[in-house]
Design goal:
- There is one protein chain.
- This protein is mainly α.
- The protein has a single domain, classed as Up-down Bundle (Growth Hormone, Chain: A).
- It contains 22 helices and no strands.
- α3 packs antiparallel against α11, α16 runs antiparallel to α19 and α18 crosses α21.
- The longest helix is centred in the C-terminal third of the chain and has 52 residues.
- The structure holds beta-D-glucopyranose.
- Beta-D-glucopyranose (BGC) binds next to α9 and α16.
């Protein structure tokens, strides 16, 4: 590839039109829905249990229906974004989000309640990879990390919003409203996405070059998009165009990184805190409901705030340093939590360490494994198989989420909080080694440069 060509792309990449921020913000409504619909159940569950006389198994099904749906849909839907385009698939998820919210909110029976939650899960599974994929392909290299991280920010805001809505309707016990309000962002996403253009990369892949060119002109602050267009075409001409390329030797690192980050994002235990914070605080000896609710809201707020911080760091420091710093911080706070449960059970100190270490742990997750997993899987796979490959990594991540969410209460019950968090500490140590030894840096490179470096073995 001639250097002048590369430098031209790099030049053009520094400038993005304001429109690309509008694009990313609308697409990130998918993230808001992902966060809202996974978080809302924490406050709604008690009331559902009372109305439907849910057994523990029934409760498990209502909670994990979403995780089951998300694992299933991300597993089977990978080729949809490659085949039908990013935009149509996101529109379809908006419709599913709307249906899922309304079915759940109006469910007259446990069966329909679970069905509604599964439909929401189906939407979440697809949206969780389709939105980062779309945003990544619309963004210029210089701030692609931050723009994709907007989706993670929206996830954290969705979680926090769901805690607040739950709190608002707790007195009236109106769980129907808690769930139904999810239909509002779904409608906004559905309407908003109609007005956005299709990804120029997907358009080129489907021989719609002149359309791709006009989209590029809208999302770059320049009329001269020829170099970027040529770069995308050149990268495509190197690709085999078949899902088998996913397992080709030059993509071995990309394969391992997608799977590894997806699994470590979950097995380092984030959702033991996001879904079960009140349970952890209870195990630490806190009895007051208001303290537990407040501390849980604090977790949500720290998550949002530190994700905002990550937006400013991700394209400056890079993905790798953030992963390394984040894993160290997560490991230390988990070790402190495990140590206090083991050594100071029943003490006042345990309550303070319990709250402090969950806050610090979430803060470090929010600048590392939280956003970086979604950013990197949207960067490291070739265009023709990007949707398929991303959905594969995403499905493993949802499966891991399901395993952690199911096993956490059992581990807590059987081995106690100290031993349980010691296990997550060890997994975080493994995650640190993985990020340090295997994950490459992609900051500042165009998606096509990343692909070229993978082919030549130069991506480190
Ligand atoms: C993870 C979710 C998690 C959320 C917390 C996301 O990146 O995939 O499992 O609940 O971050 O912010």
């Amino acid at each position: 590839m001639p250097t002048t060509f590369q430098s031209k792309v790099a030049e053009g990449s520094k400038v993005s039109s304001k429109f690309v921020y509008v694009v990313a913000s609308i697409a990130a409504l998918s993230g808001l829905l992902f966060g809202y619909d996974t978080g809302v159940i924490s406050g709604a569950l008690d009331f559902m249990r009372n109305q439907f006389h849910l057994s523990p198994e029934g409760e498990g099904m209502v909670v994990s229906g979403v995780l089951f749906g998300a694992t299933f849909s991300s597993m089977v839907s990978g080729r949809l974004t490659d085949r039908f385009g990013r935009k149509k698939v996101i529109f379809a998820t908006a419709v599913l989000f709307g249906i899922g919210s309304l079915v759940t909110a109006c469910a007259p029976s446990v069966e329909l309640l679970v069905a509604g939650r599964v439909v929401l899960g189906l939407a979440i599974g697809v949206a969780s990879f389709a939105a980062p994929l779309y945003i990544s392909e619309m963004s210029p290299p210089a701030n692609r990390g931050a723009l994709v991280a907007l989706n993670q920010l929206a996830i954290t805001m969705g979680i926090l919003l769901s805690y607040l809505v739950d709190y608002m309707f707790t007195e009236s016990g109106n769980w129907h409203m808690m769930v139904a309000l999810g239909a509002v962002p779904a409608a906004l996403l559905g309407v908003g996405i109609v007005f956005l253009p299709e990804s120029p990369r997907w358009l080129i892949l489907n021989d719609k070059e002149s359309l791709a060119q006009s989209v590029l002109k809208r999302i770059r602050d320049s009329q001269d998009v020829g170099a970027e267009l040529d770069e995308i075409k050149a990268a495509l001409s190197e690709e085999k165009g078949d899902w088998r390329e996913f397992f080709a030797p030059h993509l071995r690192t990309a394969l391992v990184v997608g799977i590894g980050l997806g699994m470590f994002q979950q097995f380092t235990g984030i959702n033991t805190v996001i879904y079960y914070a009140p349970k952890i605080y209870e195990a630490a000896g806190m009895t007051s409901s208001s303290v537990k609710i407040l501390a849980t809201a604090g977790v949500g707020a720290v998550n949002v705030f530190m994700t905002i911080v990550s937006l400013f760091l991700i394209d400056r420091l890079g993905r790798r340093p953030l992963l390394i710093i984040g894993n160290i911080g997560m490991g230390v706070s988990l070790a402190a939590l495990a140590g206090s449960f083991l050594l100071h059970a029943g003490s006042e100190q345990l309550k303070i360490v319990g709250i402090a270490s969950t806050f610090i742990y979430v803060a470090f997750f929010a600048i590392s494994l939280g956003p970086v997993f979604w950013i990197m899987i949207a960067e490291i796979y070739p265009l023709r198989i990007r949707g398929f490959a991303m959905s594969f990594a995403t499905a493993l991540s949802w499966l891991s989420n399901m395993i952690v969410s199911f096993s956490f209460p059992v581990l807590l019950d059987r081995f106690g909080a100290g031993a349980t968090f010691a296990i997550y500490t060890l997994i975080t140590l493994a995650s640190l080694v993985f990020c340090w030894r295997i994950v490459p840096e992609t900051k500042g490179l165009s998606l096509e440069q990343i692909e070229r470096q993978e082919r030549s073995g130069a991506l480190h």
